[in-house]
Amino acid sequence: MVQTAKAKPPIWCPGCGDFGVLAAMKKAALEAGVPTHELVLVGGIGCSGSIHNFIEVNGIHALHGRLLAQAVGVKLANPNLTVVAAGGDGDGYAIGMGHFMHAFKKNASILYIVMNNETYGLTKGQASPTARIGFEGNVEAPFDSILTALSIPAHNFVARTFSGDPKTMTAVFVEALKFNRAHKGYAFVEALSPCVTYNDTYDEWRANVVDISKLPGYNPSDRITSFRLCLETMQSGKIPIGVMHRPSDDPVDPPSLELKLLGDSVGPVAADLDLTHNQAAYQKLLAGLS
Fold first, then answer.
1. Looking at the chain, which terminus has fewer C-beta neighbours within 10 angstroms, N or C?
2. CATH code (residue 236)
3. Are 129 and 95 a contacting pair, CB within 8 Å?
4. The total number of structural domains that make up the chain
């Protein structure tokens, strides 16, 4: 008898911003019409990386910084699945930086959620790549994922949300999931998710987040405009959030990695491997090895 693993109670500290991400993901999957058996959640390493254990869907605990490679592999194996990769800023922007950068260019239709708390919460509060100067002795300027994402020209969906605004976070996740399920390409959402134990930024972030969709000239299909609005917002001491890039409806043929590689194919997971239909191909393959 096949047994299904049951979701476990979250192990996060009370008040952790990751609770908001988990709740928003559950609501968004329901609203986007994603069947439970078609949703795969690939978790990274760190507090946030355990998120797949707390929701009853297909889940994988990936290697440190390698969750995007595994998520893309799942999508190419079965393009009909809705694949979500979820991890933290340390996992994604440090050891996982190479995969982070290439994911935009590859443009597989997966959703990558990075829960950014500007610290390594699981290992007791060291400075992460997004930590500000002065935090735990950090002397390096913080990495900004949104400016980086906007600098890579591809048919991607790019956004930033805040756990202190779960309604907007859910709406952004819904849009990202629908983008993926339409095979339009890669969706990246950074979720500002405070660590209440080692870096409680709730009050500060709540007072400083600015939705760029409310700024004059906002045009999510124009990368240059979004980059300028984000940069100006940051220079004013505020934090830009919202949908930063939403591709125009202009046709891109084909936009996503799975369509480029597989076309209308069902993918390797559903390929016909029956000997009767494939004997000639198998014989040709064996002949080439002799």
1. N
2. 3.40.50.970
3. no
4. 1
The type of residue at 279 is Q
The answer to whether 77 and 60 are in contact (CB under 8 A) is no
- The answer as to whether 52 is a domain residue is yes
Mind listing the pLDDT tens digit for each residue in 245-273? 999 877 677 889 999 999 877 788 877 77
Eight-state DSSP code of residue 14: T
In a domain, 103, yes or no: yes
Burial environment of residue 256 by CB neighbours within 10 A (0 to 12, 13 to 18, 19 or more): buried
- Going by C-alpha positions, the residue among 76, 137, 145, 72 that lies closest to residue 115 is 145
Please report whether residue 283 resides in a domain: no
* Residue 262 φ then ψ, to 5°: -110, -20
CA angle 54, 60, 61 (to 5 degrees): 80
**Local structure of residue 94 (DSSP, 8 states):** I
Phi, psi of 113 (to 5 degrees): -110, 120
User: In the chain, which ranges are E strands?
Assistant: 39-43, 58-61, 82-88, 111-116, 119-120, 126-127, 157-162, 187-192, 209-211, 239-245
Q: What is the secondary structure of 162-175 as a DSSP string?
A: ETT-HHHHHHHHHH
For residue 268, the Cα-to-chain-centroid distance in whole angstroms is 24
Domain carrying residue 209:
18-262
When the pLDDT of each residue in the chain is averaged and rounded to a whole number, the result is 92
Q: Measured between alpha carbons, how far is 110 from 186 in angstroms, rounded to an integer?
A: 5
Residue 96's nearest CA partner among 73, 70, 121 is: 70
Q: In percent, how much of the chain has pLDDT > 90?
A: 76
Question: Does residue 2 sit within a domain?
Answer: no
CA dist., res. 235 & res. 21, Å (int): 27
